[in-house]
Amino acid sequence: MRPRDRWMLAGGRWSQGTGEDVFTMTDPATGEPLGVVAVSTPADVDTAMAAARDAAPGWASTPAAERGAALHAAARAVEGRLDELAALVTAEMGKPTGDALGGVEAGMAALRRYAELGPLHGGRSLQGGWGAADFTVREPRGVVAVITPWNDPVAIACGLIGAALVTGNTVVHKPSERAPHTGALLAELLAGCLPGGVLNMVTGGGETGEVLAGHPVADVVAHVGSTATGRRIAELALRTGAKTLLENGGSDPLIVDAGVDPSWAAGQAAIGCFANAGQICTSVERVYVHEAIAGAFLDALAERARNLRMGPGADVTTELGPLVDERHRTHVHQHVEKAIADGARPLAGAEIPAGPGSFYPATVLAHCTDHMPIMTEEVFGPVAPVRTVASFEQALNAARRSRYGLAATVLTRDMAHAQAAWRTLDTGTVKINAVFGGAPGGAATPRRASGHGFGYGPELLDEMTAVKVVHVQSAVP
Ligand code: NAD
User: Which residues face 200 on adjacent strands?
Assistant: First the structure.
């Protein structure tokens, strides 16, 4: 349990903040208490923002190579506590140990990438008159409020914080109220490599987030989380003029074409729907399978779902950990119950298991239709709702009809179908013949309800900076 006086970091100093409010975290695998977390007050957010603002000029004028070196040191500090951080992730949100370690390693990699890319990120020279120097520079935007989710708490925070810091911004981070111990340890490790006030942290849920997102000192509000929250943050930031970066929810389709091996396709669908218990922004949320292979595909997918070993994340044999908490399990189960009431047929799962913890079984639903909320909304659980289609075109049309625009996957042997898919699917990412994977640095801009701006990749360095044009006329009359 974290000591009461280490829940808020401002200007290099830890404290408990000024409030009395606390909440108790519970372990999603057991329902047992995990610790008591202090909630930052609006006054605490003011203090953290003021510390970030005061540290901004000094950090902005620190040579970029030194900022990069600080990020390398931060990555080493994270590496030194790798197992502890991963264990906290597992304890707080239930992720199986191997996945939790992978998330922390991804965070270290992001810090290292930005440590290298940051000092190389600059403006360009312009072709002005002979007696002048004309060029552009990229300057830090100032203070960045970073608001992150629980589902991959280290990797996402390290990416946003790393890109903000290496470009000379200062940061106030609010980790998710469902992963505060992880967030606090991460802040401790990173801040230990930085001057006081460069990285600050507050705790709490939506209320603290609102104060941060609408704070007049924030120059950028970077949010990774749900679409509803992203919309609210956009409203708040509009009032202050802060730039927003929103990486939000998705309802990613998976299209399974005729002619593919149904067993292989079921394996892909199982990874896409059930990895991290479906709690990945780019989880497969709806499946369209061609009628020519639908029967064999559904049988194979249901069998895979039934065979997944469900258990506590800390058990190394676990393939399906618990959902993050009881509230989220209720949300997932309500979607499943509604779909069944509307005519979907459960082939696996769909029932809340007895016993402690917020476990939910891998669930396969056949006979789903386009208008079911389970097909239109983000469920964020281990659920595969499947619609059988008569043609690839029908699948593509249905896949395109969504308010979200994060990612999509197509499994096909037909190159014309693959080409039609990547050309016409209006999503940030299109994957052909693999639900996950891709080259490093492949950041995309999400569409519509999935957000806007680059939250990842080298382009995030552009987002975190503002461009200035400089014209220096050397001759003075
Ligand atoms: P969430 O939006 O509820 O919470 C994320 C953060 O926002 C938390 O720190 C939370 O306290 C804060 N927050 C909540 N309400 C707020 C408000 N009114 N004002 C300001 N801040 C507020 O999301 P979550 O449940 O933590 O995460 C799951 C969601 O995140 C899913 O929708 C998932 O798709 C999305 N996600 C997206 C990406 C991506 O890259 N697109 C990556 C990971 C997760």
Answer: 172
Distance 17 CA to ligand 1 centre (A): 23
CA 204 to ligand 1 centroid distance, Å: 13
Per-residue DSSP letter, 74: H
Q: Which of 272, 294, 293, 292 is nearest to 283 (CA)?
A: 272
Angle, vertex CA 113, rays to CA 112 and CA 117, nearest 5: 120
* 3-state SS track over 113-143: HHHHHHHHCCCCEECCCCCEEEEEEEEECCE
Q: Indicate whether residue 248 lines ligand 1 (CB < 6 A).
A: yes
The atom number, within ligand 1, closest to the CA of 150 reads: 26
- CB of 378 shorter than 6 A to ligand 1: yes
Set out the domains of the chain in order of their start, with CATH numbers. 8-248+450-470 (3.40.605.10), 252-432 (3.40.309.10)
Q: CB neighbours of 352 closer than 8 A, spacing ≥ 6? A: 329, 333, 360
**Rounded average pLDDT over 420-438:** 97
Q: In whole numbers, what is the pLDDT of the chain averaged over residues?
A: 97
Atom of ligand 1 nearest to the CA of 228: 2
Q: Annotate 219-283 with DSSP letters as a single string.
A: SEEEEES-HHHHHHHHHHHHHHT-EEEEE----EEEEE-TTS-HHHHHHHHHHHHHGGGG-STT-
Q: Is the CB of 407 under 6 A from ligand 1?
A: no
284 touches ligand 1 (CB under 6 Å): no
Contact indicator for 363, 66 with CB cutoff of 8 Å:
no
Q: Specify the residue with its C-alpha closest to ligand 1, atom 19.
A: 210
What is the distance in A from the centroid of ligand 1 to the CA of 79? 26
- 247-301 per-position pLDDT tens digit: 999 999 999 999 999 999 999 999 999 999 999 999 999 999 999 999 999 999 9
Q: What angle do CA 417, 422, 424 make, to 5 degrees?
A: 90
CA of 62 to the centre of ligand 1 (A): 32
**Ligand 1 in reach of 176 Cβ (< 6 A):** yes
Over residues 116-143, the mean pLDDT reads 96
Q: Is 318 helix (H, G, I), strand (E, B) or coil?
A: coil
Region 206-235: mean pLDDT is 98
Choice from 281, 323, 331, 332 to test ligand 1 binding pocket (greatest atom count within 8 A of CB): 281
Mean pLDDT of 400-424: 98
- Beta carbon of 183 within 6 Å of any ligand 1 atom: no
Residue whose CA is at the smallest distance from ligand 1 atom 39? 247
Using pLDDT thresholds of 50, 70 and 90, give the confidence band for residue 467.
very high
Quick check: 474 pLDDT over 90?
no
Residues 6+ away with beta carbon under 8 Å from 435: 254, 268, 269, 271, 272, 284, 409
Residue 2: predicted pLDDT? 87
